[in-house]
Design brief:
The protein is an alpha+beta fold. About 30% of the residues lie in helices and about 35% in strands. The protein has two domains: about 45 residues; about 120 residues, Immunoglobulins (Immunoglobulin-like, Sandwich). The chain has a nine-stranded antiparallel sheet with strand order 4-3-7-8-9-1-2-6-5, with helices on one face. It comes from Methyloceanibacter superfactus.
Length: about 200
């Protein structure tokens, strides 16, 4: 303690001088620079929050996006999506306004997490029966976003876009059986229900 006090007395023997101010500024700006560098690193290295690769250009084409939405609504297509955990299969059924299956669609699809892009992956849908398209993909428990665009043929223009949120239902989410015990299979992934645009 005595040596420390002697050091401080020697350092400030003549009061606050220019070197003290200089050292204070160096420490202050050094800490600020280190904190800002850390924040910039995490901002660039983690999920940006955007769901489109080029939101600026998408905003410039906003009117075209509105018109495309109107054309899509005029189709009157009805879609239903489900995930079968036992088979690891994601299925999409598409019916037109007259309840007739919509066939021969080429689908560009992607599954992703809503809060990160580290698990994004493209999936290939194949028509397994008239108007029913499926892809085999292993989805871990939690919430997933399924985004897809349908095309009339492999080279056709996107005519229908769909975005669905799939939320897993685990055994812990199921109602209790009589007597307070949980149903068989508690803790296992039960099924995914996919609904809504997001």
């Amino acid at each position: 303690m005595k040596s420390e006090g002697g050091f401080l007395q020697g350092w400030f023997a003549n009061g606050i001088e220019g070197r003290h101010v200089l050292m204070g500024l160096i420490v202050f700006f050094g800490v600020m620079l280190a904190a800002n560098s850390l924040l910039v690193y995490y901002a660039l290295d983690t999920f940006s929050g955007g769901d489109r690769p080029d939101p600026y250009r998408s905003g410039l084409n906003y009117n075209e996006t509105i018109e495309a939405g109107k054309r899509q609504a005029a189709l009157g297509w009805q879609t239903e999506m489900a995930y079968d955990d036992s088979q690891g299969r994601l299925t999409l059924s598409v019916l037109d306004e007259a309840q007739v299956p919509v066939t021969n669609l080429a689908l560009d699809a992607k599954v992703s997490r809503p809060a990160t892009d580290r698990e994004d992956r493209a999936v290939d849908f194949v028509e397994v029966s008239p108007g029913v398209y499926a892809t085999d993909v292993a989805l871990a428990p939690g919430t997933w976003i399924v985004s897809l665009a349908s095309r009339a043929g492999a080279e056709g223009e996107a005519s229908y876009r769909l975005k669905r949120r799939c939320s897993s239902l685990t055994g812990h989410d199921r109602p209790r059986a009589s007597g307070g015990s949980r149903r068989a299979g508690a803790g296992r992934l039960a099924k995914y229900s996919c609904s809504g645009r997001r």
